[in-house]
Every structure is written in structure tokens, then in C-alpha cells.
Design brief:
The radius of gyration is 20 Å and the shape is globular. The two termini are about 15 Å apart. The chain folds into two domains: about 150 residues, Quinone Oxidoreductase, Chain A, domain 1; about 140 residues, NAD(P)-binding Rossmann-like Domain (Rossmann fold). It contains nine helices and 15 strands. Helix 6 links the parallel strand 11 and strand 12. By secondary structure, the chain is of the alpha/beta class. The protein binds NADP nicotinamide-adenine-dinucleotide phosphate. The site of NADP nicotinamide-adenine-dinucleotide phosphate has 33 residues, from helix 3, helix 4 and strand 9.
Length: about 325
């Protein structure tokens, strides 16, 4: 099978297209023919080996896992002997955890991971963004933010994978939503359903005093210190990219009802919890409340180029590698 292979740490040029043996699924694995794989901001870390601390997991001197790509959608073509919930020809989507492997024509996936059948009434391209931004935005707003109808919610980074999902999920909870993005993305954010849009190139949301019940910094570009005045007295600042300050706040003020900050490692939640959230989000796709923001699509040969784009920090929506269709 064809793979995009990474045998050493470095820039995007380290990826090589290689033909290797197609994996054989173990007893508890399914072999998935990959249709699309997500390119997320963290994927590039496995290639670059940065930040250095991450090498404790990814390999000290060279990548431990040579085929990257965590999130995917595709078709089951073989099932291991102990697998009962999946069959050949099922369309499935999910994550392969730290085993990665989705930047290839085929990936062997342990069924104990967050792996789910694509509902027959939904397009596989529309469910893939749920496993990327969706299952981050939902628990941040629902569990960490305790979002409720009537809240005033600000989403910073509204045109990204997490931010775009957060706008639509916040609208689903009947809140008043403000999206923050640059000039180029204002129309997109309006089309996602935001009630108000702040162009950060022209205005600074942190100057709006006592406005928001929730400030969700989906891209980690602001901070609790800067956003504090924009929060209502009982407001909460949420960020996907925590600073030590936010971690301390989250611990000290866990049960406080006053202004506070919080963080979640949404990606580390248990597979069954993620699968519940995916079912919830699928229903929103069905009702039309979630219309995933599809971003650029690349081929396996252009994985490096895709990562360069993602690493600009200005990608729109969900960026994917198309392998089969
Ligand atoms: N904690 C968790 O469990 C968890 C889970 C998943 C992801 N994450 C993290 O969440 C972050 C977001 O991921 P993502 O895939 O959504 O990112 P992304 O799609 O790459 O975000 C890109 C978006 O950010 C916007 N942006 C860039 N600079 C901005 C600024 N100064 N102010 C406001 N918006 C700005 C860009 O809009 P413009 O082009 O208009 O500037 C762009 O559309 C990543 O750091 C990721 O590692 C955390």
C-alpha cells in the first residue's frame, strides 16, 4: 500500500511516499481503507518533534511511529477474529489514538478506540469534522462552560476547525453568539450562524466590558488576563491551549461562581464518551444545525504542503487528505 512515511524529524520535506506491506488486522482490529484523513495543528508535531518535551512520547531521536494521521474516515475491508461490532463494507470514522497511521491507503484500527459507523443517512465527508473540531467544541461548551439558553457566548478563532463547530453548537443551545475572526473570514462566520462578528484586525473584543457568560478561545490566541474584563461577573474563560495561569485558575476556582478560567484535555476523554458526543453531533448534522465548514483538501503526496498551510495558524475549517473516494 501507499503511505506518506516519516522516518526522521524535520520540516515537511521529510515525508516520503513509500510502498509498504498492507497491515494485517489483529484480533481486535479492523482494517480500514482510508477515504479521508484529518490534518490538524497537532499532527505536524509528530513530524517536527517539537515541542521537544513531546519526544518523550513520540521518540527521542526519531519518530517512533512512522506513519502519522490520527483521525480518518473510510471503509472496513477486513475484520479481526474478535471483532463483533463492525463488518466488511461498513463506513467508519474515528481516531486511532497514538498509533496514528491514517496517512496511508489502509490503517489497522483497534475497535476499542473512538471508532463509529458512519450513519447511512449522512455523508462521510460531513461526519469527519465531528471527530476533529466537534468533539472538542461540544464538551468545552457543555461540560466546562455549562452553556445554557440565553447565554452570551464569544468564540475566538471562529473560522477554525474547533471554532466553527463551537459557533454552531453554541447556536444549538439557543445562545447569543459572537465570533471573532479576521476580515477575510467575516462572511463565513456569519454564514455559520453567529449573531455578531468581531474582526480582530479592526476591533478588540477584550475591550467589551462585562459582556460574555463564556469566552471560548478556540485557538489559544488570547488569555484569561486579557479577557477577564469582557466576562460577566459569573463568566468563564475557556481555552484549548492552556497557560500555567489558566491551569492554576482552573484548579483554584474549580467550584467558584465568580469569573474564572478553565481548560479541558478533550482529546484524552474515554472512547465511549467521545462516541456519545459523536452521536449527539450527528443528530445536529441531520437537523441541519451543524453544517461542517469544509476546508482545503490535499492528496497523500501533498501532505507536507497541507501541514505548511495548517501551521500558518490561519486554516479555515477542517483540512483533509483525500486518499480514496
Ligand atoms: N484541548 C484540547 O483537547 C484540544 C483538542 C483539539 C484541538 N486543540 C487545540 O485547539 C487549537 C485550535 O485547533 P483548530 O484545528 O481549530 O485550529 P485552526 O483550525 O488551525 O485555527 C485556525 C483559525 O484560527 C484563527 N485565528 C488565527 N489567529 C487568530 C487570532 N489572533 N485571533 C482570532 N482567531 C485567530 C484563524 O482565523 P483567521 O485566518 O481569520 O485569523 C483560523 O481560521 C489548536 O491549538 C489545537 O492544538 C486542543
Amino acid at each position: 500500500m501507499k503511505t506518506s512515511y516519516c522516518s526522521k524529524y524535520g520540516g515537511p520535506e521529510v515525508y516520503q511516499i513509500l510502498e509498504i506491506d498492507t497491515p494485517k488486522p489483529k484480533e481486535n482490529e479492523v482494517l480500514v481503507k482510508v477515504y479521508r484523513a484529518v490534518v490538524s495543528p497537532t499532527d505536524g508535531n509528530f513530524r517536527s518533534g517539537k515541542p521537544l518535551i513531546a519526544r518523550l512520547f513520540s521518540g527521542l531521536f526519531k519518530p517512533r511511529v512512522k506513519i502519522h494521521g490520527e483521525m480518518f474516515v473510510g471503509k472496513v475491508v477486513e475484520v479481526g477474529t474478535d471483532v463483533t461490532d463492525f463488518d466488511v463494507n461498513d463506513m467508519v470514522y474515528g481516531t486511532n489514538g497514538m498509533k496514528l497511521g491514517a496517512y496511508a491507503e489502509y490503517v489497522a484500527v483497534n475497535v476499542k478506540n473512538a471508532l463509529k459507523k458512519v450513519p447511512k443517512d449522512l455523508d462521510y465527508k460531513d461526519v469527519l469534522p465531528l471527530i476533529d473540531g466537534g468533539i472538542t467544541a461540544l464538551p468545552f461548551l457543555k461540560e466546562a462552560g455549562n452553556i445554557k439558553a440565553g447565554d452570551s457566548v464569544l468564540i475566538n478563532g471562529a473560522s477554525g476547525a474547533v471554532g466553527s463547530m463551537a459557533i454552531m453548537i453554541a447556536k444549538h443551545f439557543n445562545t447569543v453568539v459572537t465570533g471573532v475572526c479576521s476580515t477575510d473570514n467575516v462572511e463565513k462566520v456569519v454564514s455559520l450562524g453567529a449573531d455578531h462578528v468581531i474582526d480582530y484586525k479592526k476591533d478588540d473584543f477584550t475591550k467589551n466590558m462585562n459582556e460574555y457568560d463564556i469566552v471560548f478561545d478556540a485557538v489559544g490566541k488570547s488569555s484569561y488576563g486579557k479577557s477577564k474584563n469582557a466576562l460577566k461577573e459569573t463568566g468563564i474563560f475557556l481555552t484549548t491551549v492552556p497557560t500555567p495561569g489558566v491551569m492554576i485558575q482552573a484548579l483554584l476556582k474549580k467550584n467558584s461562581l465568580n469569573k474564572r478560567a478553565s481548560f479541558m484535555a478533550a482529546g484524552l476523554r474515554k472512547p465511549n464518551v467521545k462516541i456519545e458526543d459523536l452521536s449527539y453531533l450527528e443528530e445536529l448534522v441531520r437537523t441541519g444545525e451543524l453544517k461542517p465548514l469544509h476546508g482545503k483538501v490535499y492528496n497523500l503526496e501533498n501532505l507536507g504542503e497541507a501541514q505548511v498551510y495548517v501551521e500558518t495558524g490561519h486554516k479555515v475549517g477542517n483540512v483533509t487528505i483525500k486518499v480514496f473516494e
